[in-house]
Amino acid sequence: MLGSGLIGRSWAITFSRAGWQVAMWDREDGAAEASRAILLTLLEDLAAEDLLNGQSAAEVGARVRVTKTLAEALEGTSWVQENTPEIVGIKREVWAELDALAPPDAVCASSTSGIVPSAFTEELPGRGRCLVAHPINPPYLIPAVELVPAPWTTPETMAKAEEVMRAIGQSPIVMTRELDGFVMNRLQGALLEEAFRLVADGYCSVEDVDVGLREGLALRWSFIGPFETIDLNAPGGVRDYVTRYGGLYERLYKSMQRRADWTGSVLDTVEGQRRERVPKEGLADRQRWRDRRLMALSRHKRKAAQDFGN
Amino acid sequence: MLGSGLIGRSWAITFSRAGWQVAMWDREDGAAEASRAILLTLLEDLAAEDLLNGQSAAEVGARVRVTKTLAEALEGTSWVQENTPEIVGIKREVWAELDALAPPDAVCASSTSGIVPSAFTEELPGRGRCLVAHPINPPYLIPAVELVPAPWTTPETMAKAEEVMRAIGQSPIVMTRELDGFVMNRLQGALLEEAFRLVADGYCSVEDVDVGLREGLALRWSFIGPFETIDLNAPGGVRDYVTRYGGLYERLYKSMQRRADWTGSVLDTVEGQRRERVPKEGLADRQRWRDRRLMALSRHKRKAAQDFGN
Predict the structure, then answer these.
(1) Contacts of A214 in chain B (CB under 8 A)
(2) What CATH fold (topology level) applies to the domain A6-174?
(3) Residue A132 vs residue B257, higher pLDDT
(4) ipTM of the complex
(5) Nearest C-alpha of chain A: how many angstroms from B13?
(6) Which CATH architecture has domain B184-277?
(7) What angle do CA B251, B255, B257 make, to 5 degrees?
(8) A211/B297 Cβ within 8 A
(9) What is the C-alpha to C-alpha distance for residues B50 and B32, in angstroms, rounded to an integer?
């Protein structure tokens, strides 16, 4: 685990919960130790919520150690997960080092959300075993992870990455080639774009958009996704759906060909309406509440899958 | 309740569960009686799942009666919900009749998903009390409902409609003026457009998109919506989020300026991949499974709101 911030720590929990020995290293002195202390507290929370697969927090926590050097962290590892700042210059530097030090058969993955893997792996001798494995945070509660190959990432690397991710309980999205924004941020971006446009044009409030998802669209999406949703929304399946509603969506697309300036006055509106609901000083509490709800949803989904299947 | 198909029946359940007396009428002879029989079976299912607020199926079912004429159905009612086919000519005809027959103080709502209210209410003497109340089906499990005014819908009508919807347990999205696709289909359309594009361009599979939502984005959206999600995803709230990631989304928007032809070869891909997972003859079973999961999610959300708040 390279980098011990929010993402590095979350990955450390995800791997160690699955039985892996995790070595955590951070360029900044003392950062990894401090992060490990937070990790132990988080593990207590997860144990209390029955989200450690029956293991105790101590048991899982004992698998996470901090190393003084990068070389120590990489020694004998079969998976490297890099979680350094989202700056391509830093990534290039770190990746040169890690590619030189990691065992030749180790898979090397970056958590980056905004940089394609070719941007920092092109010059590396071991570039064939490098990819992006982008989680939604925190991966120990949100299983989806995007596996993104550079043009030179080998099929064996992709296959092994998929296997490892499934083995630790994640749900990999396996891209065939790299693309800015990958899959999830592109889908999120497309929806947010329309959300900002609707609010900017004054058709509805910020809360109305959120209600439309949390009391509407996202209920089915949270267990079947958008393609299965439309496939089940017409008697003859997705082709029937497109026959019935394709014309509507074609009309709508035409009326979406203009960007809302997210940084313009709509941002004042969005921020103003959000701060009415949750004042700035309440954000940290609300984030903890969100994590509780996410844990409860995670338990619910596990139970529903047992009761009804997936 | 005008029209006794899937939507009319679902609304009848939603209103009667909340204690309303519901009169169901259908232009087609015998259709409303047949629909009421299905409704009684559905109520048994909902009672078994503890989704009738502690009432028995018989108790709720007794509030739904079938009438022989439209005039009888409208007599003394305070809310009219129209659920006829999505053809503007039919709507115009039906609405002329219902506006003439409904009590002057009744709110008249259409369930249409694809027609703006001005298209079938302009000529009506009582057009001020007419609006669209568009549910996601079934409204007794999915609370979001879009209230869409025509230019002449009175503020009193909108206020009363909002009040009635909240009283029967729905979560209204109150639009300030009409717009093709309303709010939810526009948000869904924007996301689907990108989903079709990703699959058409071969970046990922249909299942990958569904995983990205059901094991990723839609988990948080299902209880906080997309605006609250980004508001909680940066330490300083939504403005901080836009500062950090606005540039990424601006780049992505530029690369989305081209439509995927949903009816083209991508539809063969989508349909092919869906049919591998659920063959055509399995769709009806899968729809029943979806409804079970939706009921379980509905119970989970009620309990989570009690345990942790909303």
Answers:
(1) 221-225
(2) Rossmann fold (3.40.50)
(3) A132
(4) 0.97
(5) 18
(6) Orthogonal Bundle (1.10)
(7) 125
(8) no
(9) 26
